[in-house]
Amino acid sequence: MTLELISLETLQTLVTEYGYWSVFIGIGLENMGIPLPGEALTLLGGFFAGSGELQYRWVLCGAIAGSFIGNNIGYLAGKWGGLPLLQKVAHFFKISDEKLAETKQKFLENAPKAVFIGRFITFFRIFAAPFAGIVGMAWPIFLLCNLAGAIAWGTVTVTLPYFLGRIMPLADVLRFMAKFGLLVFALVAAWIIVPLWLEYHPRNQPEK
């Protein structure tokens, strides 16, 4: 969810009034699969830690714990009740059962990368964990990827605004983080698309 839907002033008020809990709950709900601005609250938490209004270590703990716990709940929700919903959505959009099964298998093959890297991309962050549960990703592997991803994402998302906030106003920090997010998305897209292109593109063209 972007700042156009919930104003920056509202998010600042939430962080000011509820502090670490706003970061923990916000990113936790987003990682469960609920489209809320959890990342924006985390960025603000890091910024306010840099200005001395919050403590860095507790913002970081709230971001990592909320991300980890939220993803686990999202995984369990997908595992226990997500498949029937996914099938209904697929049938609504005229997606055959064979195509759906192929998509699930493709995701399962790449689930560890999706769970880890998905945190850095808004759309994937919301749906990666529930879909991992739907396709039946092994629980121990999910836990490991989930924890590693939560630590990596939380560290980056809290630490960058923490230091940038000491030299930039909030608006500039948010613009920088938005560009950083686009860069990550481009790198991930290239990482996924290039191997697929190499897989499906004929490597040896027949001689004419």
Plain-language structure description:
The chain has one domain. The protein is mainly alpha-helical and 208 residues long. The chain is built from nine helices and no strands. α2 runs parallel beside α4. Helices cover 79% and strands 0% of the residues. The protein starts with 7 loop residues before the first helix and ends in an 8-residue tail after the last helix. The protein has helices at residues 8-18, 20-32, 38-50, 56-92, 97-109, 111-117, 122-135, 139-164, 170-200.
How would you summarize what this structure contains?
It contains 9 helices and no strands.
Q: Considering DSSP H and I runs of 4 or more, what fraction of the residues is helical?
A: over 70%
In round numbers, the mean pLDDT is 81
Q: How would you describe the shape?
A: elongated
Q: What class do helices, strands and sheet pairing give?
A: mainly alpha
**Beta-sheet strand percentage?**
under 5%
The total domain count is: 1
| C-alpha end-to-end distance | 53 Å
Oligomer state of the chains in this structure? single chain
The number of E-state strands comes to 0
Radius of gyration: 19 Å
